[in-house]
Design a protein that fits this description.
By secondary structure, the chain is α/β, with parallel strands linked by helices. The chain has eleven helices and twelve strands. It has one domain: Ribonuclease Z/Hydroxyacylglutathione hydrolase-like (Metallo-beta-lactamase, Chain A). Helix content is 38%, strand content 20%. A hairpin with a 2-residue loop joins strand 1 and strand 2. The chain is globular and about 60 Å long.
């Protein structure tokens, strides 16, 4: 079976490896992981908020004796739902790439905490950010960001107890830097957000060729278990699906780019029927935007700021269309 049960909490992969899964895997509901060996621990990512991260750490402590102390933390990339809980393990060695650390430092946690007070003044962008994140997460307790205190470029090989673990940066793709955590003896890989399983991915950085190549790299490792950044724990089937998604979106977007369609019109025009079961379909808008940018399209600062707004408009059109279809039947 490709997908493990999509249930909240700890999934025991075996041999001291664990995935931590948060349904429904949509905006902000990310996964994490733990590697424990010979009394040493490495945590893969924290979560979107301090309370969510605290609950995860408490659950790990209750199940895995070594998790009473987290020795190391790896942040796979610079999105808040993978590092905003870092403050709870500030005493650990926190590892990330130089690029990821730089990108993390650009986040303002107070902005997200303040979203509920200001979103009405931010138009479509504010409405979408509030709907997907602002009203779902408690951002209190993240006054200061806790950033990596050990950085690397490219690749870093570590030992966690007697386990060899490789941190490999396959970005820029989803963000400026995307690290996978590979445990060769157990054939397990933690992909961070290079894999959204059964959810539309979002390409903040690109280029798309890097993401397609990253999928191939993960498949070629031949892991038995793949812990995605979002969605259920799985195998390489899901990685191939993500690769096919980007090849399709790239080719369909290119036709429309050359035909002179705006990125929003192109996103609406692409038939995403094959992926209709995947969550967060509005992300096609951001993916087309990134592709257009990659191909030399120039966007104003207003258009860049409006990207969340554009996703929100797409989402509401989809919802209205679905409701219309329901009434028609």
């Amino acid at each position: 079976m490709a997908n493990w049960p999509f249930t909240q909490g700890i999934h025991d992969i075996g041999n001291g490896l664990y995935g931590y899964v948060q349904p429904d895997g949509t905006w902000g509901w990310s996964n994490a992981g733990l590697i424990a060996s010979d009394g040493e621990t490495l945590l893969v990512d924290t979560l979107m908020s301090v309370p969510l991260t605290r609950e995860m750490l408490d659950r790990f402590k209750a199940k895995v004796p070594e998790a009473a102390k987290i020795d190391r933390l790896v942040n796979t990339h610079a999105n808040p739902d993978h590092f905003f809980g870092n403050g709870l393990v500030a005493d650990a060695e926190i590892i990330g790439t130089n690029e990821a650390k730089k990108e993390m430092a650009g986040f303002n946690p107070k902005m997200l905490a303040n979203l509920k007070n200001v979103y009405t003044e931010m138009g479509d962008t504010g409405a979408f950010l509030y709907e997907t994140m602002g009203r779902k997460f408690d951002f209190s307790g993240v006054d200061e960001l806790t950033l990596p205190n050990r950085t690397f470029d490219g690749r870093l090989d570590l030992n966690v107890g007697s386990k060899a673990v490789s941190l490999i940066d396959l970005g820029p793709a989803h963000t400026d830097s995307d690290t996978i955590v590979w445990v060769p003896e157990d054939r397990v890989v933690f992909t961070g957000d290079l894999l959204f399983n059964e959810g539309h991915p979002i390409m903040w950085a690109g280029p798309v060729e890097n993401w397609i190549a990253a999928c191939q790299y993960i498949v070629d490792l031949d892991p038995q278990v793949v812990v995605p950044g979002h969605g259920p724990i799985t195998d390489t089937t899901a990685v191939r699906n993500m690769q096919a998604y980007f090849e399709y979106v790239r080719d369909e977007s290119r036709e429309r780019f050359e035909a002179g369609l705006s990125y929003e019109d192109a996103a609406r025009d692409i038939n995403m029927q094959e992926f209709r079961g995947w969550s967060d379909p509005e992300r096609i808008v951001a993916n087309v935007f990134s592709l257009y940018k990659q191909w030399g399209a120039q966007f104003t600062p207003e258009q860049q700021r409006d990207l969340f707004g554009a996703m929100g408009r797409y989402r509401h059109e989809m919802q209205s269309h679905a409701e219309g279809c329901d009434h028609a039947h």
